[in-house]
Please model this.
Amino acid sequence: MTAQEQESIFHDWLGRHKGVLFKIIRAYAFEEEDRDDLFQEISLQVWRSVPGFKGNSAVTTWLYRIALNTAIRWKGKERRHADHTSPLQPTMPVLQEDNRELDERIEWMYREIGRLNEVDRSLCLLLLDNFSYKEMADIVGISESNVAVKIHRIKKQLSEKSKDTDL
Amino acid sequence: MKFEDMKKIWDEQREEHVYVINEQQLHENIKSRKQGASRMVNKMELFLLGVNGITGATLIVLNYVDRSGEVLFGTLMGLFLLGMAAFIWVRRRTRLKHENRFDRTMLGDINHAIENATYQVRLSYAMLLTVVPVFSLAFMGAWKDGKSPVVLGFIAAMFVLAFLLGRWEHRGLHVARKKRLEAMREKLTSEN
Model:
């Protein structure tokens, strides 16, 4: 695959599936700067992954796996600072937030998903986006029964939390 | 609220329009991140290859040419350093070959990341070990040349500093990263 083909496929994926990436960065990064950083990191991994995509799964499944795997290993600004691994040179932001009014119910959901541990966050996003237990097990690499146990706990946790709000 | 109700709310969102992407900047940043990520490991490997290879070869040649004194220790040390250089070279080739490999599952990717982190831990440990023979050679050379105690003390202090900094990097960066990845794998695979 030539660099030009790789570039073209990457931009095509980004154009058609950026919504998937936006959901993931909102669930894993909570400040503007962090979201920008995570988006760039995910974009880099997606770009690198292009030659490895053989079409055995849907593009969205592939993107979910690459993006979630990057997100659960990504370090936020504070942790990077504590580990002394912050980038030496700050770069120009890539994402610009749209100023439209956000649905407060969706905001609440992102907040609560953000409170789950990194792995549960992945499963919750996959569940909300209609992936079956079998597909989740294939993406994450754990058994379906393990997925079911975790999902049961996540649903319970979110339902409990919703009782404290008047949404 | 039941989870099914949350799901309905979730389905209503239109995430495509939450952010606007500056594609030109993204292209620039991806390019610079791509180079930056492999630059550090690359430098570390080349440095270790150079130090171990050159020092090892020099030791063997010197001990072969001048056999008047004790040659066994120097030759063994040279062979050890050359072996270390060969190990780093083989691991580097494997790393480069698998640099853009993506596993089919997240767990597979984490296992692969742990493998890489283990390599980094070993490499930085090898770097720490390298300080000892390099220090011994530099110190012995200076001592045989009749350098003053101040110079000898300075050389010793610099190597102690290098050792401490190397140990800090080894534990604080590489070992910590490996532990973090292992903790992530545990979270992924645990049954609760």
